[in-house]
Amino acid sequence: MFTKRVAILMACGLLFITMATAQNKWSASKANEWYARQGWLRGSNFQPSTAINQLEMFQQETFDTATINRELGWAENLGFNVMRVYLHHLLWAADKTGFKKRLDTYLAISSRHHIKTLFVFFDDCWNDTAWLGKQPEPKTGVHNSGWVRDPGSMIHTHPDTMKVLEAYVKDVLTTFRNDDRILLWDLYNEPGNSNQFSKSMPLLQKVFQWAWEVRPSQPVSSGVWNNGPEFKDLNRFQLESSDVITYHNYVYIDDHRHTIDTLRKYNRPLICTEYMARRNGSLFQLIMPLLKAENVGAINWGFVSGKTNTIYAWDTPIPDGKEPQLWFHDIYRKDGTPFSKEEEAFIKKLCK
């Protein structure tokens, strides 16, 4: 009896989501018209080298506009025109006005460099516990040792979390709903990661519902990233709900081309919001020309080597902190010199 009742409630919820989608999701023609106006999108996931995570990037005490301005200048010089930037709800909960003011400041800096921004709301990757205030120092030679999920498992242990998240998403979307400095809203990064799997579905559904209720002028999306059977329902919902199709691919060119061909059936613009892991064969010299030829947005992981330690591979820490001969991610050192001058020249030529 209980199981049947739960099934009926879930079905009603899915019906509501479907109705909301029909009313508020962009048509394919609108999405394609929007994309045609953008030109070829290329850029990086951006975290200033002085910040270990989203919190350190946007907290008042550590909001480093000088570094942001300098490093986005390098991005402009490289030919990039979009950066993907992560947010965290704890910053909004602690200081709504100040947080939104800092987002506006960031957008002012990025727009001066002719770079649009793709903001990310939620994330299921890396550390489960997050706090305000001083953030941890990087663990030597460890990839993304201080990155934090949002909201993490607190959504299951603190009953009021969902209400706070709804207010956060709606407030930020409403504030910037017509801001043309923002390219796109990425509502949820890698839902189901960190062995969450289907536990992430309720928040994924809710964040799309909240976005549809606000209906910003910018497109909304959530990128597919894992085609394993555990992610089948998540993938289906992401692909059927997104205005623009976004995805991640960190492997070789044949697989990446197959991913593009598979996603073309949705007849919507495609933006790869994470790629480029040198050890895996996902190289600028191979993948970027493919994405340009296919008119797929190209946003690689990592820009300047810094506190995130993403020159080290996901699963291969280097205890003594020695710089790996082959960087996993990132393009520049903190002094602005590139990991590879040949790679830098290749990117510039392709972008310009």
UniProtKB/TrEMBL annotation:
Keyword check for Signal: yes
Domain of life, per lineage: Bacteria
Pfam families noted in UniProt: Glyco_hydro_2_C
Keywords (A to Z) from UniProt: Carbohydrate metabolism, Glycosidase, Hydrolase, Polysaccharide degradation, Signal, Xylan degradation
Domain Glycoside hydrolase family 2 catalytic, residue spans: 156-280
GO biological process, one term: xylan catabolic process
Signal sequence extent: 1-22
Keyword Transit peptide appears in the UniProt entry: no
UniProt GO molecular function: hydrolase activity, hydrolyzing O-glycosyl compounds
Name assigned to this protein: 1,4-beta-xylanase
